[in-house]
Amino acid sequence: MPRDVTVTVDGRRISAPEGSTLASAMLGAEVTHFRTSVTGAPRAPVCGMGVCFECRVTVDGRPHQRSCLIPCTDGMRVETSPNEIGAWAPPPDAVHESRSCDVAVVGGGPAGIAAAVAASAAGARVIVIDQGMRPGGQIWRHRDPAALPKAARNWLARLGEKGGGAPPEWLARSTVFDARVGEDIVLRLTGEGARGCGAVRARRVVLATGARELLLPFDGWTLPGVLALGGAQALLKGGMVVRGKRAVVAGSGPLLLPVAAALSRAGARVMFVAEQAPIAQAAAFAAGLWSHPAKLWQAAAYGASLRGATVRFGTWVRSAEGDQGRVARVRLTNGRRAWTVPCDLLCASYGFVPAVELARLMGCDVERGRVAVDALQRTTVPNVWCAGEPTGVAGEAAALVEGRIAGLDAAGDEARARSARLQRARDGWRRFGERLTDAFRPRDEVRRLASDSTVVCRCEDVRRESLDPSWSVRQAKLYTRITMGPCQGMVCGAACTSLFGWSPGTVRPPVGGTEVARLG
Ligand code: FES
Known about the structure:
The chain is of the alpha/beta class. The strands form 8 sheets. Strands 8, 9, 10, 11, 12, 13 and 26 form a 7-stranded mixed beta sheet that branches. Strand 12 and strand 13 (198-207) form a beta hairpin.
């Protein structure tokens, strides 16, 4: 049992199990107003994984810290942040050191772990750079490793083993914000981790940057208490308390049922589960899973654990309304009629967007929003590989096999990377990913829910009515600052593509946003 630590939030003492994330502990203690938007609206965590920047608070005097990425420590002092610039002091852990390796792996989810284990076993010196506090990415990151599936525990254990060389070195709480591709590849890092600012020089790089959730704007989506599906899952894993809260789970894709089941297990009352895909489409996808019976059993087990929640297909969120600065009701519709469901938590997102920004910065070709790779996961840039969701969202099994192929080939073991077994598995999971994407693609009504007054860019509070669909994304940036806030368009960029068909703008460092003080 982890011991409890005490954190002071705006002068109020709250306690949380050691290892909880600050965002989870604060939400569990009924803190609902984390920061104030540029136009004065209350905001609170959404993505739970450091993408949206909505959970920023001042921690021990340092402003604009993402509370979803910070572990609670005893005596920590937190102020929920008004929208102020704050004092930009260099972080105390800023160390301008640089390291070198044969293979750098960017991202510590299943693809990154598999790549690191495979490359290390083939004798390469490997460094893994990951934003999280502990290995596993969104899917395998948990305060209590015993709660993970056996396969995940095995992979995490293998990460610490000596392969052909030393075990992979793990740089936690570190983000690559810039990359220079030359004879060697230099990755510049930022992050709250103990090693602070620095750089990794690698002969070869495997990008395993994962995906982020697709959040589509609707009236009320900025209210505290409205979370992304994976955000809710991450915050629950981080220790968020939801006992007795009424939750509505909505959106699209295979994350709906596990999130609803996790909320239910944690003591929330799941009022409604709304999948936007028509039932016929979802059923056709499920019927195609005959070759993956474990997935069908898993879905059935999640459904059975929901204890009476209403589950509907062809149903989506129309809008959300709040009381006292937080979500209180959600308006659902099936296109023919609309109705209201009371809730304290609304979890809504629509699948995933491959995180391709770093690959684009490094010059890799991106086609249909995915990094283009060959059978060995090689990108179009020499010495750069890509594995997992950036090459197309297909789930954990696809990420593992692609990570292995990339890691082996990056370490010089092309023969094993080309093995028929790995190539067959990769192709099979890729086909699964295509079917998944097609079955749960958001319908037009969901993609265009924003009304004139809906905030589209959460960071800069840019409303739909300020945007002219005839603009390019560059014009929109110049006229309104959309995509130029702290998240650097990680949230509103995909919303703009959905609403207006705008293609993403040029990627420049810093990728994903960081503190100016950390750029060095
Ligand atoms: S939502 Fe962050 S820049 Fe627009």
